[in-house]
Design brief:
about 220 residues, alpha+beta, Chloramphenicol Acetyltransferase, seven-stranded mixed β-sheet, three-stranded antiparallel β-sheet, about 25% strand, globular
Length: about 220
Amino acid sequence: MARYLDLATWPHRSAFAFFRGYDKPYFNVCTALEVGPLLDLTRAAPDTSFFLAYLYLSLRAANEIEPFRYRMKGDQVLVHEVIHAGTTLLLDEERFGFAYFDYAEDFGIFQAAARESMAAVRAQKGELDPQDDRDNLIHYSTLPWISFTSFSHARRWGREDSVPKIVFGKTSQREGQAVLPISVEVHHSLMDGLHVGRYLERLQQYLHEPAAGLARP
């Protein structure tokens, strides 16, 4: 069940008040993560999707780093117990849609449900379903054609949006290692570079040991 932070005892409260007044209160970090072990695992297990595996590990890490579950609600900060994934999905005729994947501790359950969600979105011919009323998400996107080094998101200014946005790029080889670009954009009122660093460190650990990361916690 979601709960509200006690701002009076929250060590980050000064930064929360400081950055709330910024016109652009978001910061973005881009880096590359080593994914060779995960690639090897998914190649040896054809039923396991590389995309869904790294998305699951990303979402698992985000759920374990508490500030990634913080959301602004006016003058308060809501803490979701669990957060899920909303991601762009390439469709036919160069269209895209939004698919939603509920987090499940069991990767097998997560992957099966995600595949059902993607199939349902691909079968639709209607409008986009952005689900702006939901903030218990991470907003994901993937650019498998680009090994990017920086990224900027489309924004609607004046709208309270504290949902983290994570983008993955094209896997490439660097110094003999397979690397995956990642962009992480977050609201500075809710977290600092320290928290993003902890998230990336946790995710990299899972990518280095994917069998353990994909195992039920």
